[in-house]
């Protein structure tokens, strides 16, 4: 699982501070999460093979999270894309995009499917045999969702020595990896746990931005591998966080701690701060494993 | 008159090639012409004091000419703008922008006025005592206008020696500069042309992009100081120019020559070309004073 931060700054794009967008590579998928203005340029700069993106998840319809989407969709058309593109985002996103394409008389020549969200409960948005994606309802000034990406458990691993010793025919190996008990060459039933090892633990990633401190999300993200949680402000600006429905670094870390996540990544910094190490320091008061998002930074999760 | 090229490349934004946008500084005005994705970042990079922009002219509703507009409008809001902003562009532009602002629950806190265009004849869009702006109907795949910016003639210049010699009272100087004849201290009427010099010649700038070769514009732009004319292609790709309703460098230069303009600036290059000097060379076949637009380049006109 690889997370590329294309942009992690709040509000207006600046020369050296890009608005929110990330790419999550997981089990062969390339998921794009949010798409602020300039995302298509960041995708090129970060050398993401963006034709491989088939699913785009938009948290909410503030400009710094979605003004780059229509440009990316148009660029896909100009590059001759044929593969289907799925866009998941708040109700209204379809009209906003299609109106602009229509005005430019430039509809896409590939299937563009919108999945509009308006539920206040978590929903399963995408699922295949390797991964699932669910929404995480957040609390912000407009309707907003985070997204929870989960690898499905892999197959059990053959314990080759044990299998050989148990005298099991090779033709059963596929069944064994799926967790079944099998009968060996001597007619004896072999318990699956005796001849297999646990698969690699499944990984999971939650993106939570933008949101006020909202502990209601904790049950849904408990024990996940990595949490990206917005920290627009430091606690010295707590009143601004409440007013604008954003979180402080301390609040993000409190969520991470209560949910017992593996690692917390902070981002969506307000432009008022110079040194982002203050965010880490503040978060470290209640949670140890804190990373700072940076534009262009890649996290191997 | 100062022209800053923020972007001069066609179609999709790239790391080193920005879509169309320019700032024209003329008689104290800062006019923004087109607004492709990333324009607000280019404005910062080029150190344009963009709070001073009060009029934005959008040629047409293809993404590479207007996908940056909604972001710029939002940024003005975040920066606390209070001054009125006027947007001139094709019918539909108001709905595209307001829908997106509405979805983000973020209407502007400054007056935002749309002037939607649908005429196929030139129209006067803006005028004050120093400058006028008119539309130049072009011919492209969607409804498109160029824009003609004209300084109004300045006041006549006092020929100080002649004025003194003519024994004219200082209190008449303002009238003299306005072109009136005056009576001197001896009661003699002094012909204005004897005591004044011609003002600096008025300058004019026409922006013509995007368009197929369209000689109908020549009468409107005859004798202007500077013409920016798109040259998406070289003549070796004439058939592509016709198909996509763009121009070649040769065609742009032919327009410049027929209209007897002072200088031709070429731009809106297709991404297929590496060396833009080929555009200048091709244009020079029929027109001498050719300049090449470059992102970030400033022309003093």
UniProtKB/TrEMBL annotation, chains A, B:
Belongs to the RNase Z family. Its cofactor is Zn(2+). It is an enzyme of class 3 (hydrolase). Its EC number is 3.1.26.11. The active site is at residue 64. It catalyses: Endonucleolytic cleavage of RNA, removing extra 3' nucleotides from tRNA precursor, generating 3' termini of tRNAs. A 3'-hydroxy group is left at the tRNA terminus and a 5'-phosphoryl group is left at the trailer molecule. Keywords: Endonuclease, Hydrolase, Metal-binding, Nuclease, tRNA processing, Zinc. CDD domains: RNaseZ_ZiPD-like_MBL-fold (cd07717). The keyword Metal-binding applies. Binds 2 Zn(2+) ions. It comes from Ulvibacter antarcticus. Pfam families: Anti-Pycsar_Apyc1. Zn(2+) 2 binds at residues 64-65, 210, 268. GO terms for molecular function: 3'-tRNA processing endoribonuclease activity; zinc ion binding. SUPFAM superfamilies: Metallo-hydrolase/oxidoreductase. The keyword tRNA processing applies. Homodimer. Zn(2+) 1 binds at residues 60, 62, 140, 210. This is Ribonuclease Z.
